[in-house]
Amino acid sequence: MKGINPTFLIALPALILGIVITPLFHITLSESVYVFCALFLFATTLHFILKLKQTQSTISALAVFFLFVSLGNLLFSLSDPKNQKSHYTHRIQNQKPENNFYLRIEEKLRPAFYAARFVVTVTQIDTKTTSGKLILNIEKDSASPLLSLHVDDQILVKTALAEIIPPRNPFQFDYQEYLRKAGIYHQITTSTPEVYLIKRGPNSLSGYADALRTKLNTDLNEFAFSKDAKAVLNALLLGQRQELSTTLRDDYANAGVMHILAVSGLHVGILMLVLQFLLKPIGNYRYARLLRTLLIIAVIWIFAFITGLSPSVLRAATMFTFIQLGTLLHQRQAGFNALLTSAVILLVINPSLIYEVGFQLSYAAVFAIMWLYPKLEPLWNPKNKILRYYWQLIAVSISAQLGVLPLSLYYFHQFPGLFLIANIVVLPALGFLLIYGLILLMLAAAGILPEFIASFYNTLLNTLNQFVSTLAQFDALLFKNIYFSIPLVILSYLLLFFMVQLAQKKNFINLVGSLTVLIAFPLSLALIEYNQATPALYIHHLYKTSLFTYRSADLDYTFYTEKNQQVPENLIANFKSEQRIAEMYHEELKPIFKVNESYILRIDSLGVYDLKAFKPDYIVLSQSPKINLERVLKRFPNTRIIADGSNYKSYVDRWESTCLKKKIPFHNTYEKGFYKIE
């Protein structure tokens, strides 16, 4: 497309490639530095040679591409917290049972059932200055009220580090990996009496934003908002989703409008469009355009501050700031250039953003709107203004949905069939709700908010919640447990690209491209099935019960449970979402399993294991069998021991000690999660 900055067009995919390959190939920081320096010298020398010859070459473009690949590699290595000498993992190599951790609150997380949760920065361990982030869990205790903590508060906790628990069952959300990509490797758990407040008060922009949100929440508590209305208000205007109930979250997700509760590019974009409309009377002279641009940018960043300067809002504010500046300077393709520029800048500042689902979805949606909307909107041009407005809204919704659909299917494995109806109603209302809400917050902060204005906003939010809840009831139009893999994501975007190109320009290249991708879809699925068609046995972790799952070479899945036990629905859903499944069966657990050439013996509460001429490769202990493990290991010295979640914790600890002494491999599903045998 003409007018797009070629440098950023090369830089963005190169940066992304460099960031992604770094952890895959375990590239060290020193290797990253050497490669970058070598490529920088090569690209610079080549540039001057070509400049002297007054010529151009594809080699120059390739050199720049690989230079940015190496830059992405270097930036990701530099951003790895563990490469910092002061990181806490280097300070506790000879960790005592407990250390004095000096912590600063960075972010409040959604509370768990049993604890309040925070992201914290470690500033000091005992007497050593330290860096790095942790998850802090403060257990709820009825005997002592939970300490009220805010961003930038500094506390002291005497405790020990704990590992982030890996997924305990197959295909669960990997919270450990999610936190690792955010630079968080450990957690600490304590109780309120063991937390000592050292210093209160904000000392950063995030801290002041959190203080402002706390004050606004306190001011709004004087008005009779319903619980769900207040939760949506907090999510919509203050960027706080902790108060959303599980039911409310599910309703918005199932109706396909969860994006309106996550303050992001959608909110900032709508706010920008509303402001452009309101400021239109200023005129279109040079200084009027400059004034309008400055006012819009100022309001965007004020909104970003009010909502807590979350990464998603910062991304959106940066992106739309560039869009405004590009429009002011009459740049061709200002939107695309702003998109590319903001993405490059944000990835240079924080390379780990590429792994955030919100980053991927927001950029995919905005790109799709910029690319597809101008092609869809001219397809129908009704004379009626209301019809034209709703057709434009439908075109925007379809464009955005096509942009995020492959990623949504990959991450969430569901598709809301009513997304179009929901967005047609919700999106026009969102602009009004945002402007009304911001006025409401300003009046509340000034102490002059009339009761009827708050009451009407409460009615609007309750109506919105009721509408979304009604749509969410249509289960038949919510398609769940859709299997979708990375290859299918890539093929989906390629198909979208070629089909749009073919609709615009019917030529041989676009036709061949479309047909090639269509043929690749079934081939990709066949290859996935071939790779998965290996017999495997999963030993799950479930509290007080045992569950095995066997996958056959024909992709039949058999769930083995104890007598009269049901297989958890969420576990079945995980298998359906992540695996190609032919048939599913349910049977009662048996004592012996065979997977390929490996034999598995399950020893339950009966304690039966002395089987003649039988030498198991694995022994699974379940239901706390009263056995002498040393005697078992003497009988089967070449086995591996697995203890599932049905055992008493004290038994598991004793068995682990025995195996450690005998140098026998031991797997505890309490700590390590499920075990897979192939």
Automatic annotation (TrEMBL):
<dbReference type="GO" id="GO:0005886">
    <property type="term" value="C:plasma membrane"/>
</dbReference>
<feature type="transmembrane region" description="Helical">
    <location>
        <begin position="389"/>
        <end position="412"/>
    </location>
</feature>
<feature type="transmembrane region" description="Helical">
    <location>
        <begin position="257"/>
        <end position="279"/>
    </location>
</feature>
<feature type="transmembrane region" description="Helical">
    <location>
        <begin position="291"/>
        <end position="314"/>
    </location>
</feature>
<feature type="domain" description="ComEC/Rec2-related protein">
    <location>
        <begin position="236"/>
        <end position="505"/>
    </location>
</feature>
<feature type="transmembrane region" description="Helical">
    <location>
        <begin position="7"/>
        <end position="27"/>
    </location>
</feature>
<feature type="transmembrane region" description="Helical">
    <location>
        <begin position="507"/>
        <end position="528"/>
    </location>
</feature>
<dbReference type="Pfam" id="PF03772">
    <property type="entry name" value="Competence"/>
</dbReference>
<keyword id="KW-0812">Transmembrane</keyword>
<feature type="transmembrane region" description="Helical">
    <location>
        <begin position="482"/>
        <end position="500"/>
    </location>
</feature>
<keyword id="KW-1133">Transmembrane helix</keyword>
<dbReference type="InterPro" id="IPR004477">
    <property type="entry name" value="ComEC_N"/>
</dbReference>
<keyword id="KW-0472">Membrane</keyword>
<feature type="transmembrane region" description="Helical">
    <location>
        <begin position="33"/>
        <end position="50"/>
    </location>
</feature>
<dbReference type="Pfam" id="PF13567">
    <property type="entry name" value="DUF4131"/>
</dbReference>
<feature type="transmembrane region" description="Helical">
    <location>
        <begin position="424"/>
        <end position="449"/>
    </location>
</feature>
<feature type="transmembrane region" description="Helical">
    <location>
        <begin position="334"/>
        <end position="350"/>
    </location>
</feature>
<feature type="domain" description="DUF4131">
    <location>
        <begin position="33"/>
        <end position="194"/>
    </location>
</feature>
<keyword id="KW-1003">Cell membrane</keyword>
<dbReference type="InterPro" id="IPR025405">
    <property type="entry name" value="DUF4131"/>
</dbReference>
<feature type="transmembrane region" description="Helical">
    <location>
        <begin position="357"/>
        <end position="374"/>
    </location>
</feature>
<dbReference type="InterPro" id="IPR052159">
    <property type="entry name" value="Competence_DNA_uptake"/>
</dbReference>
<feature type="transmembrane region" description="Helical">
    <location>
        <begin position="57"/>
        <end position="76"/>
    </location>
</feature>
<protein>
    <submittedName>
        <fullName>Competence protein</fullName>
    </submittedName>
</protein>
